[in-house]
C-alpha cells in the first residue's frame, strides 16, 4: 500500500521534474545506468588485467615450447575474453539512455548515453527525427536520426512524454470528423 501511495503521489504531483539549464526538462531516467556502468567497468578492468598478466602467464606456463596449434588456441581464448567481451558489451549497451531531457520551446530531446570510454555522451535530436523500427528489435526502442536508442516506456513519470517522443500523440487511428 505504501508503494502504491508513493507512485500515486509521484504521478499526481504538480511540481516540475528536474530541469537542466542547457538540456531542458528531465522526462526519463533509466534505472539500469549504474548497472551498465558497473558491468562495462568490470569488463574493461578484467581485460586490462589480462593484458598485464599475459606475459607472466606465458613465461610461467611454458606455452612458448608447445605446438603451434596449442599456442593459437590459447591466444585465441585469451583474445576472446580480453577484446571481444568489452566490445560486445559496448555494442549492446551503447544506446541505453541514462537520462532524457526535453526542451518544449524547440521540441528537441537530449539523450545521455555512455560512450566507449565510459563518459557520458550527449545526443540532441528533434522529435521529427524519431523513427520507430518496423520490426521490434531487442536493444532498440527507437532511432534518433540513425542512432538506436533504448528506453523503458514504464519509467517515464508522465506517459504523455513517451507518447510525444514516439509521435503517438500526432497520429490517431480514428478521426471523428471522418466518421461523421
Automatic annotation (TrEMBL):
InterPro entries reported in the protein's UniProt record: TMEM70 (IPR009724), TMEM70/TMEM186/TMEM223 (IPR045325)
Keywords: Membrane, Transmembrane, Transmembrane helix
Transmembrane segments: 41-59, 71-93
Entry keyword annotation includes Membrane: yes
Keyword Kinase (UniProt): no
One Gene Ontology biological process: mitochondrial proton-transporting ATP synthase complex assembly
Entry's Gene Ontology cellular component terms: mitochondrial membrane
Organism domain of life: Eukaryota
Protein family: Belongs to the TMEM70 family.
Protein name according to UniProt: TMM70 protein
Protein source organism: Struthidea cinerea
GN (gene name): Tmem70
